[in-house]
Specification:
Number of helices: 5
CATH class: Alpha Beta
Radius of gyration: 15 Å
Strand order of the largest sheet: 2-1-3-4
Number of domains: 1
CATH architecture: 3-Layer(aba) Sandwich
CATH superfamily: Hypothetical protein PA1492
Distance between the termini: 28 Å
CATH topology: Rossmann fold
Shape: globular
């Protein structure tokens, strides 16, 4: 049985290196929630965090979009709306009919609706806290 793959979308860049690293850590926390849910988290933040200034940003952005297209769902990080890149990712996901979710509860429902069967009981009827720690 194939595991669902979930793209983590949220701010990456920051005004300072510290702000960028904080964004990466937030995305990692969201990704861990996806893994705990029983799905595979694809967190682009962690794939390129040390490659900045090695290539033009456009290559990383195009690569992220390509990865997103291969995923079963998108889970948004807190403060996603302040990211131009995340808003573009949402547009692509919607055009590709990929569910975009704000909480782990929404993600669990979207995965069930896409036909993923939860053999571990992790996302069947879960209504736990979302990635920001608030109930959904």
């Amino acid at each position: 049985m194939r595991l669902p793959v979930v793209y983590i979308a949220g701010p990456f860049r920051g005004q300072t290196q510290w702000e960028q690293e904080t964004n990466v850590r937030i995305a990692e926390r969201v990704a861990l929630g996806v893994w705990k849910l029983g799905a595979v988290a694809l967190c682009p933040h962690t794939l390129t965090r040390f490659y900045q200034k090695e290539l033009d940003d456009a290559m990383f952005l195009r690569g992220g979009i390509e990865l997103l297209r291969r995923c079963d769902a998108v889970l948004l990080c807190p403060e996603w709306s302040r990211s131009v890149g995340t808003r573009a990712e949402i547009t692509v996901a919607m055009a590709e009919d990929i569910p975009v979710c704000l909480t782990l509860g929404e993600l669990a429902r979207a995965l069930r609706e896409k036909g993923f069967h939860d053999t571990q009981g992790l996302y069947g009827d879960q209504h736990g806290p979302d990635h920001a720690g608030k109930a959904d």
